[in-house]
Design a protein that fits this description.
Largest sheet: 6 strands, mixed
Strand content: 15-25%
Radius of gyration: 20 Å
Oligomer: single chain
Order of helices and strands: HHHHHEHEEEHHEHEHH
CATH superfamily of one domain: Ribonuclease H-like superfamily/Ribonuclease H
Distance between the termini: 18 Å
Helix content: 40-55%
Shape: globular
Length: 304
């Protein structure tokens, strides 16, 4: 395989199509009697990933671009309302494809993970916070990395050092990072059961005797910077360079995949747009891994 967007799209389509043939129940539900979509579910997933990689935050602009430039890949393209509705119904399928591709990389077996959360801003005006369908889930929160307040959600990520998403969750901005991390691990016990001795690196907010004991009981070793008044902890010399690694993973989502320009206005809309970007990064890492690229997280070959 070559390392370009068309090849990545073809490889993703084939992988998703094979998955749906083996497990047709993963496809979004539709009535037995009615119109059969001309754009298949595998093509829909591929189209969504290409949108994220090429940086189109507007679905209408993306579909105009696709009609003008991607006719050799897609025989039929839906209108913007149809594309939006089908994408929102495909959240389960997208989640399954993320895991399928992640497991099919050499990075999946890495014995070191990093955990962090990053803001997903959903609005800036006071009227938005009152009238938005996201009100009640979205909250005011503080981003210490950029010293700013925001109204929205937090994307909690567990990744390998190479940036491959292993697990994730989307919560309100005030959700406790430690509780969310434990919930992520509880939701998929196989992650830790199959990895005795896994090392987890996090910042100083991931602290607490009970929290660390729970991780230890799951067979995980937590490395984090010491808090004020604590004795120096193991791995202290690694935290500064690794902090840059964590921030660069977050920056890939924000700067290259436009995480905070998702455009979602409802809970389902935000969820599928965040999943779309996680899948885009996972697909790029998977394809770079298969084609033997030295930097697995690089999106340079796919953003034009």
């Amino acid at each position: 395989m070559t390392n370009d967007l068309d090849t990545l799209a073809t490889a993703l389509y084939v992988r998703t199509d094979d998955l749906l043939k083996q497990a047709p129940h993963l496809a979004p539900w539709r009535p037995r009697v009615g119109f059969t979509p001309v754009l298949t579910d595998a093509e829909l997933v591929t189209l969504a990933v290409m949108q994220a990689l090429l940086g189109f935050t507007s679905e209408a602009r993306w579909l105009r671009h696709a009609r003008a430039h991607l006719g050799h890949l897609f025989r039929h393209l839906p209108g913007q309302p149809g594309y939006n509705k089908r994408l929102r119904r495909a959240t389960g399928l997208i989640t399954q494809v993320i895991r399928l591709l992640a497991v099919d990389t050499t990075l999946w077996t890495d014995d070191v993970w990093v955990a962090d959360s990053t803001p997903v801003e959903c609005g800036r005006s006071r009227e938005t916070t009152k009238r938005s369908d996201l009100a009640g889930w979205a909250q005011y929160g503080y981003c210490a990395s950029h010293s700013r307040w925001f109204w929205g959600l937090r994307l909690h990520l567990v990744c390998t050092l190479g940036g491959l998403p292993v697990a994730f969750a989307l919560t309100g901005a005030k959700a406790d990072e430690r509780t969310t991390l434990l919930d992520i691990l509880d939701a998929d016990p196989t992650l830790t059961a199959q990895r005795p001795g896994q090392t987890l690196i996090a910042d100083r907010h991931y602290h607490g005797r009970d929290f660390e004991r729970t991780l230890a009981d799951a067979g995980m070793e937590l490395l984090r910077p010491a808090r004020k008044g604590e004795a120096e902890r193991p791995g202290a010399a690694l935290f500064k360079p690794l902090r840059q690694t964590i921030e660069s993973i977050n920056q890939t989502f924000k700067a290259q995949l436009d995480l905070e320009r998702h455009g979602g206005r409802t809970p389902t809309g935000v969820i599928v747009r965040v999943l779309q970007r996680i899948l885009a990064l996972t697909t790029a890492i998977w394809h770079n891994d298969k084609t033997g690229q030295p930097v697995k997280r690089s999106l340079v070959a796919y953003d034009h």
